[in-house]
């Protein structure tokens, strides 16, 4: 990888590791729990990407600097624990958005270097950006961000498509990276701020015949109203 891409990768590890530390603090975990969440978030997506692409050894085995960066992030966080604990709840999704954008570009770039098709490169970029956060959230017993309402994986996919397209047009590497980062980060931050989401398709349910044969069927309008109520309840809880 070029020097710029390498340092972007390191920046993504730091940001994602910090998001793991923040979630560990809010989940009342000990320092080892903080280290585990920081590690799986920082290198989990890239590890899965390398395994799928058949890269041996995976990136952090051949370059242990990634592990030292994670250790340093956790160490600094322990020293400044009280400051991290006071961060608003909006900081975690914002930090996660920056990590998503960085890792999406890194994953897409690495897949293209290995000669994969554009479609596979986009999927690898999305996997790199999403997988670590999913593992982090599941270990903390939270619904993964990628499965919530706001646009998440879609932002990563859009950024990957832009990167692949610009590289296919022989655009400069700096331009490709900058445009892909801006689009992924912009979409994710916009989704957080305005609660942007893809359409929800609700099932139309049928009432049991034994209970009331004459009961009216659920209509699409009622199903949509139910979805809106669930969204309002989730926003209220936040």
Automatic annotation (TrEMBL):
Keywords: Cell membrane, Membrane, Transmembrane, Transmembrane helix. Belongs to the UPF0126 family. InterPro entries: Gly_transporter. It is a multi-pass membrane protein. It is found in: Cell membrane. GO terms for cellular component: plasma membrane. This is Trimeric intracellular cation channel family protein. Signal peptide: none annotated. It comes from the Bacteria. It comes from Vreelandella nanhaiensis. Its main location: membrane.
């Amino acid at each position: 990888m070029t020097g710029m891409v390498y340092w972007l990768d390191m920046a993504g590890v730091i940001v994602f590791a910090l998001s793991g530390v923040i979630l560990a603090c809010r989940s009342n975990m000990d320092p080892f729990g903080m280290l585990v969440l920081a590690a799986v978030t920082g290198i989990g997506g890239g590890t899965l990407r390398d395994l799928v692409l058949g890269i041996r050894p995976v990136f952090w085995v051949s370059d242990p600097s990634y592990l030292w960066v994670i250790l340093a992030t956790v160490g600094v966080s322990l020293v400044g624990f009280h400051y991290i604990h006071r961060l608003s709840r909006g900081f975690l999704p914002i930090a996660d958005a920056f990590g998503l954008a960085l890792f999406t570009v890194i994953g897409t770039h690495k897949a293209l270097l290995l000669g994969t098709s554009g479609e596979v490169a986009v999927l690898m970029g999305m996997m790199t950006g999403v997988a670590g956060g999913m593992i982090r959230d599941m270990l903390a017993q939270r619904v993964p961000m990628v499965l919530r309402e706001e646009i998440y994986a879609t932002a990563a996919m859009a950024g990957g498509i832009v990167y692949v397209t610009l590289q296919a047009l022989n655009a400069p590497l700096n331009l490709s990276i900058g445009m892909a980062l801006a689009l992924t980060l912009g979409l994710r931050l916009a989704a957080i701020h305005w609660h942007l989401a893809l359409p929800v398709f609700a099932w139309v349910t049928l009432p049991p015949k034994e209970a009331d044969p004459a009961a009216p069927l659920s209509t699409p309008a009622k199903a949509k109203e139910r979805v809106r109520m669930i969204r309002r309840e989730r926003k209220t809880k936040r």
